[in-house]
Amino acid sequence: MNHRAFVALLAVACLSGASHRCRADEPLVVVADFEGASVRDVEIDERERSVSFAPGGDPERGWPCWWYFRIDGIEVDEEITLRLRGSSAAIAKQKPLAASWAMPAQATYSIDGESWQHTAPGERQGEWMIYTLKPNAASLYVAWGPPYTPKTAEKFVRDVGERSSHATATVLCRSRAGRPVPMLHVREGQRESKDRFGVWVQARQHAWESGSSWVAQGFAEWITGDDQNAAWLRQHADIYVIPIMDVDNTATGNGGKNALPHDHNRDWSPKPHWNETRAAQRMVTDLIAEDRMDVFLDLHNPAPGDPSFFYILPRELIDEPMIRLRDRFIDLAYAKISKIKPMIPMSRHPKVTGSSYHPLWRQISANWVSMNGNADTVSLCLETIWNSPKSTTTGYRAVGASLAAAVQEYLAERTVSPPKLPQR
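The line above is the sequence of Zinc carboxypeptidase; the predicted structure tokens follow.
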């Protein structure tokens, strides 16, 4: 049946009262041919004007919980229904991932693909999560969370480098697929490198955790801004910010976590598999050799029901003054992040990661830096809540800015009262 005959048939059905939502419109179309897109098992109900779907992604390239696509053919003032179910793909020949990882309480949407906002809260109906929204636009982007693609990172890093005389846009390396890994290097003034603190901030070792890239952006925005404390930090530190580590899985819409042979955050070994890990490890090792690996921050998003929190190593695995310095930094960061308005939920109690957490626990980045760093290195993983009304681009960037302000205050304290350093 051709399109004209199909529309005519719909019109007859509408006149006969076959469905109160039936309409002779352009058909809805799902598009997923752009960077970061991911969807599968799409079914479109033209009468109900609904799209049923599951997250896309190859389970061998990480947890299949990320989804992101565009819907075309929407009428003005029309309400669209999204019907989401979890992926049925087996992970490592085991049972599928729990659907809750793919089902935010509120989905994310955009009219222009740049400005993102939340839908109304979804409704769980059996295996389905139902979201409804009225975009008042012909096309609509929808996603698990606010997307942040490699092209987004490239543009942000380039724009900051052009805008700020204290920031240099560069690349960490090229990925195994040949993609550039954007990196920002920030420093101000003529202070020699040997007299500067070293600060390393990286995000998105797990590709589906898009909120972490927005946190990294907020961090970079603060340190290149006009605040006098930001200027102090630029003058006293070398700061490196990588908004996306796993650029390949981010670009192709794969989850990244537990990708084969292992994900980026299990790759900090003597022989890293991923180019990004190898390059980051080499630069961090250089900072350690110069005795200035002062703050290492690895940014993530946690489980569906978790608030924001830090991961730390058990106290018995590290020595003083690292323990005292780490605890002080956590206190400063908690104080600043918890004051964000509207408040970002954050736990004051870090979670411990060690031998019981994962077989490759020694190869997790923050752990590796703690165990191989300087005596005064603070190395932490920050998990920023994603399943909250505050988990927006604005909320994430506010966390990043607060985290940067905590780094400045912590390092300023270090210049006044440097720690007594035992031999390691």
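Note on the example: Confidence is low (pLDDT under 50) at residues 1-22. The chain has two domains: 3-143, 150-416.
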